[in-house]
Amino acid sequence: MDQLDQLSTRTWHVSPDMLCYFHADGTFAHVNPAWEDTLGWSLEEMIGKPFSAFLHPDDVYSSEAAFARLTSGEPVLGFENRYRAKDETYHRLSWVAVPEAEGRYFCSARDITRDFERSALVEQQGEEAELREQFLAVLGHDLRNPLAGLDSGISIIQRRSSQEDLVPVLEQMRRSVTRMDELISNMMDFARVRLGDGIGLDMAVQDDMGALLQQVCEEIAIGKPTAEVNFISDADRVVRCDAPRIQQSLSNLLANAVTHGDMSRPVTVEYRTQPEHFVIAVRNAGGQISEQGRANLFQPFFRGTPDESKQGLGLGLYIVSQIVSAHGGEIDVASENGETRFTMTIPG
Q1: Where in this chain does the record put each PAS domain (predicted)?
Q2: 262-315, pLDDT tens digit by residue?
């Protein structure tokens, strides 16, 4: 036996692919050991048996048509069907088959069952994700209309009522409406990102970005009377950005800080400009965020430990990261020594 024959023999025995020869009548002439390794059938149980004896019933017609092409002299490449294993399960095989000597056909089959199942799972998950995100988009849109009506009703009552005891009730209702509007905005933004539209930006030069950021701080402080929010500005130039989106990002970061931080100490917002960027940082006291928590903070629907899920959907920080990314910027988080700090660095 020459070297080529020895190599062929060795390949036949060690190949993980299922190699075989068929007779012209479709019966197995030879099979290599990979058939038994994959399907469990021994050589004696396969030799002389027609390939149709092992086929999934739904694949008989297409497989016989492919074999007819092979026997007419046409190679068959990438054909797929399902073969029954000895344990009665089915394996999906991908075939390469070529005519060889007259009346004999060489074939190579590869088990692609796991690849097929993974692809099917990915497709199913994709369909489920698309349905979920479309639902979020519709839900957000349909909630906005009644919420606007509720907000208008609160405004009318506030203007017309002279009862002092109603003032705190109406203020609480207003805060609830504002909170609900923020949740809807986050849902809508999440749906836009996941449906491919991304976070839209309306870029413009802002003469006094500090004043807009301070306004957000004041709104958060009003909504959370127990929180003290300090604003520090060190800006010496105009910036170019989508100001409402930056305000939304700061509002989400501050909402996170006053919800999870230690309110016995103030929350600090720092705003400063650099030659090519501007920086917004939010600092709050409180427990340290774990390394695993920091790794998942900007993932959608992440809400940390069970006691941290008191409010919201877990979308706020994800939306912040998407807004910063849309600006071409970066957001970092550090949590140590009893303090957590989120820093947005944005070109503009």
Answers
A1: 24-74
A2: 988 999 999 999 999 999 999 999 888 888 777 788 887 766 654 444 455 577
Residues 6+ apart with CB under 8 A from 65: none
Single out the residue of 288, 220, 292, 285 nearest to residue 249, CA to CA: 220
On whether the CB atoms of residues 18 and 32 are closer than 8 A, the answer is yes
CB 252 within 8 A of CB 317: yes
pTM exceeds cut of 0.85: no
Cα distances (Å, whole numbers) of residue 111 to 77, 152, 179, 266: 15, 64, 54, 62
Q: Which residues of 29-46 are buried (b: 16+ CB within 10 A; e: fewer)?
A: bebbbbbbebbebeeebb
Name the percent of the chain lying above pLDDT 70. 90
Looking from the CA of 86 toward its CB, the CA atoms found within 13 Å total 11
Contacts of 186 (CB under 8 A, 6+ apart): 252, 312, 313, 315, 316, 319
**Strands, DSSP E only, in the chain?**
18-23, 28-31, 76-84, 90-99, 104-111, 204-206, 229-234, 239-241, 267-273, 277-285, 330-336, 339-347
Q: How far apart are CA 314 and CA 297, in angstroms?
A: 9
Mean pLDDT across the chain: 85
Q: What structural domains and CATH numbers belong to the chain?
A: 3-111 (3.30.450.20), 117-194 (1.10.287.130), 204-347 (3.30.565.10)
| Phi–psi pair at 117, nearest 5 degrees | -65, -40
